[in-house]
Structure formats: structure tokens, C-alpha cells
Amino acid sequence: MGASLCLLSGLALTACGGHNAQTLTVKVQNRFPDRQFCEPESFEVAVADAALTKALDLGCWRYDRQDFTFLSEKDTDALYTFLGGKVEKASELNSASGFTLPIYKRSFPTFSATRLPALREAGEAFYYLGETVRDLLHDPQAVPAASTLTGAGPITLQTGQKRVVFEGTGDALVRDVYSAPVATMFRRLGPQTISHENVQGGAQHPARHRIQTGLPEHSVVALVIRLEDLQILGHFDPHYFYEVAEVQKDGRASFSANLSKEAVVSGRHLLLVPRLKLQPSLTALRAAATARPKEADAVILQISGVPFREVGQKALNPSSPTSVAR
Hints:
Radius of gyration: 20 Å
Distance between the termini: 52 Å
Shape: globular
Strand content: 35-45%
Low-confidence stretches: 1-12, 14-19, 39-62
Structural class: mainly beta
Number of strands: 24
Strand order of the largest sheet: 1-2-3-12-11-10
Order of helices and strands: EEEHEHEEEEEHEEEHEEEEEEEEEEEE
Largest sheet: 6 strands, mixed
């Protein structure tokens, strides 16, 4: 069939070349006019519309960041099925007003997740892409450790003879897809390693670190910052923040100097780290001296084109030993 496309059920499913390779193309959504995304207080990461919020009886506030990305329920189910998973209806949520929300269990041989839709539009459910991709990477049979991500829009997940194309463009797409292998890297370091994605990356606060990577345009890198170790149950655990970004024409990548694990509202107090000391490896990062440091150790890791099992093993050599936010 060569490089031609077969359109099945509205999804691009391709048999490519002579090696039985297959490609699934899913359409990433990030434009819902006149909608404010809200975060229920009891969820660390959730994006709900008014109907879902009413059904769950949760309060909402407006995000600083308004550029999250989503997959339709149809594309989410197709993605799991394509990679060898199963989709089953687990239960449903009913509100007093008669609103009904079906809840589906999506599973692989060694991992399963029961997720609420992030929002509904014209009767169709949509799921937060960042959470979906993180879930996929939990199962090494579905997405082996040798898999890679390439491109900055569209983005291609290459896993053995299967290829998934996330069709779309923009910084939010890059963040929501490429943050997954970074989260997986920290998970490999063990349960006593605490890490958070800096979701303020999409809020565009003015204080930013612009770091020369030396990589070609459209490469994707991660900035990892080590903060003060956290004391938990009598021992101290290393504490990291990370953010992914696309490399621009001049070889630089831009990151927020304000850190938060939540998409907080304007006016909330953020952790500002104005000065970074760039180190040559992840293991070279030292714990910050205080809970609100003016300077912290950081490292730049290449994510695009790197097998997931190798993410974090090699850092980029910084062209300058420090970065001062501007």
C-alpha cells in the first residue's frame, strides 16, 4: 500500500511499506469557543465544564493557563485499541438534574485507568491529552521503552511497528505530549523521588529563562529544576520541577521562571526561581538551600528522538553556566 492513507471511521489508519507498519492519526483539540476551563478543588489535574462541575458538585475557578489539549472519546478509544488495549464501560455518574456521565475503563495488560472526561461539547466527551499519554506510557507492552516521540506539531509516537500521529500544532500540544516521557523518567527513579510538571509554562508569565540548547528548530527539550528536598515520614526526598518546550530557530528554548504544579489563578503567589545554575547531568543536581530559593540547580534534557528508556541519561552541555530570568 506504500505511503497511501486508508480512512477508517474518520481516523487515518495506514498500512505502510513492506514491514507491516501501521499508523493511527488522531486529531488533537484545543479550541472550544466561549469556554472557560475550571479546576475542581478536589482534583489535582482536572478540567471540567459547567455541566460536569454541577454533576460533581465541585467549585471552579478560572485558569491562568487556557491552552490545554484534548482528544475526543472516539479518538481516545481508537488509540487504546490500536495499541492493544481494551475499552469497557465501568459505571456512570448521575446528577440530581438528570445529567448522566458514562465512565469508561481503558486497560492494557499491566495497567488500567478509569477516567472522567475532561469536558463535553455538543454531547461528545473529550479527555485531557496530557493524562492520556501518561497513562499509555505506564504499560511497556503497549508502548515499549524503546519508543520515541518526534516532531513538534504534528507529533509522532513511534512504537515498534506502530506509529501514532497526534495531529495539531502549538506549545500546548508539545507540553501535553512530551511531558509524559519525563514523568516516566522520574517514575523510574523510585517512589521517594517527588516531581511535578510546571504547568505555569502555558501561562506566559513575563519572567522567563531563555536557554541556548544548540539543537535544531522544532527539537523538544525539558528543563529540570531541583528544589529543596522534602521531609516525608522522617526522611528527605529529592524534589524536582520540569517543563518541556520546543526549540526555536535561534536554538533557544523558553521556560517560565514561575513554578506551580497547579494551573493557578492570577494573583496567587507563585514560586519564582530567577537564577539557574545549569549542570552537565541529572545526577549532578544539588538540592536547593531553602524552600523559596533565588537560585537553583537545573539541567536541560533532550526529549524528542530519544528512546524513552534513555531520557535523562544524557544532558545537553549548556553554552552558559547560568540562566537569569528576564
